Amino acid sequence: xIRAAVEADVAAVVELEQATxxxxxxxxxxxxxxxxxxxxxxxxxxxxxDGTAVGYAVASYAGDIAELQRIGVREQHRRSGIASDLLAAxxxxxxxxxxxxxxxxxxxDNRGALAFYAARDFVEIDRRTRYYRDGTDAVVMRLPLIxxxxxxx
Length: 153
Description:
Domain N-acetyltransferase: 1-146
GO molecular function: acyltransferase activity, transferring groups other than amino-acyl groups
Strand content: 25-35%
Radius of gyration: 15 Å
Pfam family, one: Acetyltransf_1
Keywords: Acyltransferase, Transferase
Largest sheet: 7 strands, mixed
Protein name: GNAT family N-acetyltransferase
Helix content: 25-40%
């Protein structure tokens, strides 16, 4: 089940953030602010299996751009469709915010994530050299959300 995150989810999301993002994990305070409305352009979603949070997604919405900031899934639940469901929920919600395209950044060395997003019609539009703490480049990808934006029919 995919649902909006609530304050009771903060500890689980922080744990997932640390497990999936490693050195680039966000702090508990930042997660708390995002979930409780302290960051008004940010939405968190949680994926639950049997009442336990096993995945999350974070997106920001500002004007005509939605940005997928995070998707994380507990290792034992990967390749089960949870990331796809989270992404689909974020993409479905984005046009209602006024967004006409979705952007994301992914590590250039994360072949699995690059293939995951490409299979869902995201295309590379740019690279950010040495973007991550360890010096790895970020690949910027875009998905048009409405007709006429970036080639969507």
